[in-house]
Design brief:
Helix content: over 70%
CATH class of the largest domain: Mainly Alpha
CATH superfamily of the largest domain: GntR ligand-binding domain-like
Distance between the termini: 41 Å
Number of domains: 2
Radius of gyration: 18 Å
Oligomer: single chain
Strand content: under 5%
Order of helices and strands: HHHHEEHHHHHHH
Number of strands: 2
CATH architecture of the largest domain: Up-down Bundle
Number of helices: 11
Strand order of the largest sheet: 1-2
CATH topology of the largest domain: Four Helix Bundle (Hemerythrin (Met), subunit A)
Largest sheet: 2 strands, antiparallel
Shape: globular
Length: 228
């Protein structure tokens, strides 16, 4: 925690937001769980002021909901919310992929390829936390290579709501392996400047993510019903 305490005061809440975001994305704070300010302030070794600013940041991203009489809770999407949001993000990602294939510079492609190799190493170690961080960077780089600021802003806003679910979509080993293979194909199609192929691949990739998430949600609902 020393790095949080030593950063300038004006960026402290941003550092707290990074750590809090990771806890939500990786499931340490479950969907629907209340964010206990006292406990979180103790765990992160910060005062409540930067913690509250960090919570506001995550609320703006859609990872946290601010509810009357309940305070802040980790966002929890219904199956319909998930289907609707993935429908939108799939369109944004396929557009990013197609434009990136047309506009990407050699240096950008080299950076994506390097991140991909790092991601493969994390997959080999079954280090999901590092894998997901690198995976997200690759998707961000593809979006950036599309060279459309409006697309980027919209993508970030929508994707923020899905981070935790995209992380958990890799809990199934077979589906995780398929996602890795799809990332292999992304690098190949970017290198080939194959816009049509990239468009189709990105939609397929996001639809597979959606299906994995909904399958997990349905399984959880069935499990709770069985216990009841």
């Amino acid at each position: 925690m020393a790095e949080i305490l030593s950063v300038p005061r004006q960026v402290l809440h941003q550092q707290v937001a990074v750590r809090l975001r990771q806890r939500i994305v990786e499931g340490a704070i479950a969907p629907g769980a209340k964010l206990n300010e006292r406990e979180l302030a103790e765990q992160l070794q910060v005062s409540r002021t930067p913690l509250r600013e960090a919570i506001k940041m995550l609320a703006a991203e859609g990872l946290v909901e601010l509810l009357p009489n309940r305070g802040a809770v980790a966002a929890q999407l219904s199956p319909q919310d998930v289907a609707d949001t993935f429908e939108v993000i799939a369109g944004l990602e396929e557009q990013s992929g197609a434009l990136a294939a047309e506009r990407i510079a050699d240096a950008e492609l080299a950076e994506i390829r390097a991140l991909h190799y790092e991601m493969l190493a994390a997959y080999t170690r079954r280090d999901l936390s590092t894998y997901y961080r690198l995976n997200a960077q690759i998707h961000d780089r593809i979006n950036a290579a599309a060279r459309n600021p409006v697309l980027t802003r919209t993508y970030r806003q929508v994707n923020a709501r899905l981070q935790a679910l995209r992380f958990r979509s890799n809990f199934d080993e077979r589906k995780w392996q398929r996602a890795v293979a799809e990332h292999d194909a992304m690098v190949e199609r970017l290198a080939a400047r194959d816009a049509a192929g990239m468009r189709a691949l990105m939609r397929q990739h996001l639809e597979h993510k959606r299906d994995a998430v909904l399958e997990q949600m349905n399984a959880g609902t069935l499990a709770m019903a069985a216990r009841g």
